Amino acid sequence: MDFISIRIIxxxxxxxxxxxxxxxxxxxxxxxxxxxxLRTARATLAIAGARTVSLFASGSARPADNRSVIIEFLVDDxxxxxxxxxxFVEDFVNEPTTMxxxxxxxxxxxxxxNLVNFFTPVSPAAIEKFxx
Length: 132
Description:
With 132 residues, the chain is of the alpha/beta class. It is built from 4 helices and 8 strands, in the order βαβββαβαβββα.
């Protein structure tokens, strides 16, 4: 089994895709106006409109209703990324902070309120864990 992607259900696909394109520098691939994907070397972030939920099971997901998942991106220099996001990201949860497990992390919310973590491994163990 392979883990392929995380999908965010949103009420405004274009707005959320634009946000993630700007925040990550990754261009989205659009399937149609209700579905786009931002693909990185390790994972895919899929963004889909609320109307797509009924194709699976009506009411099974709601836009802007996540309070338990953090979407994480490995970045080369979280402090530089923080500077680049200042003035663009409206809701920073924390400034870059070195965590006990060895990652320097920046936590913020996307326009739908989803938590996003940009992190850079800084301890030898974390650097080894995420070696490309």
